[in-house]
Amino acid sequence: MIMRPHHLFCTRLYTGCGYSDEFCSNMDIIVDMLKQNPDINIRINTDEICKFCPNNNNGMCILGNEDIIYRDKMVLKCLSISEGEHNYSELHSKMNSMIDEKAFDMICGNCRWKKQGLCSYDEFQKKA
Predict the structure, then answer these.
(1) Three-state secondary-structure class, residue 6
(2) Which end of the chain, N or C, is surrounded by fewer C-beta atoms within 10 Å?
(3) What residues of the chain score a pLDDT lower than 50?
């Protein structure tokens, strides 16, 4: 499965809310699949989560592709990983040990879901 780096955070903090019923149904499936700790292909590109996002316009985020790419690059930097094959469980462990509140805010600070109170660093730590 291809996954954008910042979606590691989104899948960890997902609570059933999203853009639409179709988006949430897709996200439910993806989150369930990730619980089996599969190998995933980390790419700065649209992925299975983006597929049902209303802001996806031919592989570009209409809300600000530069901001999304910045988040992706910050995740790669903070986890000291590169694009490519990774195990979801191993990345989850790296997130536990390498993401502090400052890194979380750099990655998620401008996200609409964080601004709406649907995720936070406290919740991120609880789901470790």
Answers:
(1) coil
(2) C
(3) none
